[in-house]
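Hi V.,

Quick status before I head out on leave. The structure for the redesign project is tokenized and pasted below; the design run finished overnight.
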């Protein structure tokens, strides 16, 4: 059975063999020893990164390690895939919100997190397909 590590466009964690264009995490271990998701997030810091980085390899859902999540862009995760993508995201945020200065990830996460976990917007934060 596929692992529940894919983030759908609404931010839900779904069970599928498909991975996605990015890897990320939601602040720590979301899975148990059986590699089952037991929470939808651990902190408000949701990060998205490139799939490959300097040839590093990780075993997905290793015990006592952060839970790797796979997604496509636009799932509520702030990019950390190099300064270029992060700075482009910050600039887009500044323009969209008509702000005069660039915000840092913590400041953007303060605004994003309530939207990410809004139960009315996302009916089921953890579901299976």
């Amino acid at each position: 059975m596929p692992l529940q590590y894919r983030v759908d466009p609404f931010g839900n964690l779904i069970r599928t063999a498909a991975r996605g264009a990015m890897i990320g995490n939601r602040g720590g271990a979301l899975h148990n020893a059986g590699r089952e998701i037991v929470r939808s997030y651990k902190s408000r810091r949701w990060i998205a990164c490139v799939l490959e980085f300097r040839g590093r390899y990780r075993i997905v859902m290793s015990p006592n390690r952060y839970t790797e999540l796979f997604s496509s862009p636009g799932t509520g995760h702030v990019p950390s895939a190099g300064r270029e993508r992060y700075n482009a995201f910050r600039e887009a945020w500044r323009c969209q919100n008509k702000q005069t200065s660039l915000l840092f990830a913590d400041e953007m996460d303060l605004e994003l997190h309530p939207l990410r976990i809004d139960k009315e917007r996302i009916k089921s934060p953890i579901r299976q397909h």
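Above is the designed sequence. Residues 6-116 form one domain.

G. will cover questions while I'm gone.

Best,
W.
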